Amino acid sequence: MCPKKTCIIMKSSIKIGCTAKITKHVMTDGTIHVEYHWEHPDHCPWDIKEITDSRLPFEIKQWITEMAIENVGWKAIKKFLRIDDECLIEIEKKKSFSSFPMSLLINYHDVKSIINAHMNKLSRKSCRDKHNCEKWMKYSEKKKNCLTLFRTHENDPFLILWVSDWQKKFLEEAEEWCIDSTHKTCKPITDSSKDSYLFTIVVHNYTTNRGLPFCRQLQLEMNLKTLFKFSCAIGISGVHGKPTSSEVRISKSTHDTNLVRDRGCANLNSMMYSETPKAFDLAYQLFLAENKEFEVFLAYFNRLRLPRKELWSKAWKQTASFHTNNLVESYHNQWKTFYLDHSRSLRVDRLVYLLSQMVALDYWQDIIKAAHDFDGFRLTAKEEKKRRAAYCIDYDIACYMVEQLEENVYQCKSFTENILFYEMDTKEGYLKNCSCPDRTKMCKHFFLVSRVTKLRFSRHAPAPVAQ
């Protein structure tokens, strides 16, 4: 008996049974005898349709393969295929073709299939994704010194977690962290009819002043309990979560559904960014009034989200040192755009390969570049606003507002109250720990003291330019 095919192809064969061929015979005396059987009774080999339906020439496939090895994607390859306007005008006027640019034969699916074949060759250590994931976890644990966890049970959710060795120190030093979830990233190992979820811990990296992803977790269900247990072994201080709105759908009306969904998201954002508990209550009452017809959605929110409002609303999280969107959304966008490529049909082993062998190395490289001044220090929009406020003050007045109390202690006068003064320490040549009510890591007093004393306002920030 023949073994069952593991890959079933639904497309019909492109073979048409043509008997035309060229045969080469090497004789005993060294001469070469060539026979031509060039009769095509059922088709015309010079027809454009015949050419486009045939396989790509070997040289073109080899060129695309070389591009894939160099990690060149479809968008970059398409630039190489672009034809100038003069050639396009010439092609447009032709009725029959004796020759044409080979770039006209290449389309997206040709490039995508070759790139997928190259990625499969890199990511697959075994033909089965379960065994492949096991091998990747063992490789990460032994070769990369990663902290890993891999569990699978028959008819039960599977779980894959890992954190790189170089990431541990950043996670241990982080005072607050966020959890980002990417839905329907791949098909699970245990049940291909369901979808998997990717959870990522994101912390504020003060070297690059951007979000830094850690501790990837792939699982079948949205259960954060295991992630919390796994992360507690590393060391955690605070949690920031961003609530998600459940889908509200109106029968046979996509436009109305989008309007209702946008309104629901606006209501949730109003509650999430409320400055005080009173403002939260007003936003909550507006949320109930505008969505009263969706009883199931309101019941879900009141049962699961409202009792935990202290965990996700700004009214009870005034000490947050960063804006969640500055960290999570930037990582989420880069992950989907440059790595996931908006695809939801990846195998689990491909996803593990992308995260552990590509994404982690790229972020590590960014840290090293910033640490050695190869890359500039970037301020957020709010931090840039504070810096401008500090530099709008006359320099003589700024010098009057700043005073050195001790060798490593400076005092700064309040911007609004003349009787208030705030102190800040210095460490290794940069400012640290201002006593003002602003709990973010870089307040406007940091920028003012940095401007006057020429000290860095962050470890990897550039030194201020002299006035």
Largest sheet: 6 strands, mixed
Structural class: alpha+beta
Q: List the secondary-structure elements in sequence, H or E.
A: EEHHHHHHEEHEEEHEHHHHHHHHEEEEH
Helix content: 40-55%
Roughly what is the average pLDDT, rounded to an integer? 78
Number of domains: 4
What spatial order of strands do you see in the largest sheet? 3-4-7-6-5-8
Number of helices: 17
Could you tell me the number of beta strands?
12
Radius of gyration: 30 Å
Uncertain runs are 233-252
Molecular shape:
elongated
Strand content: 15-25%
Task: Give the N-terminus to C-terminus distance in angstroms.
Answer: 86 Å
Keywords: Metal-binding, Zinc, Zinc-finger
InterPro entries: Znf_SWIM (IPR007527)
Protein name: SWIM-type domain-containing protein
Organism: Rhizopus microsporus var. microsporus
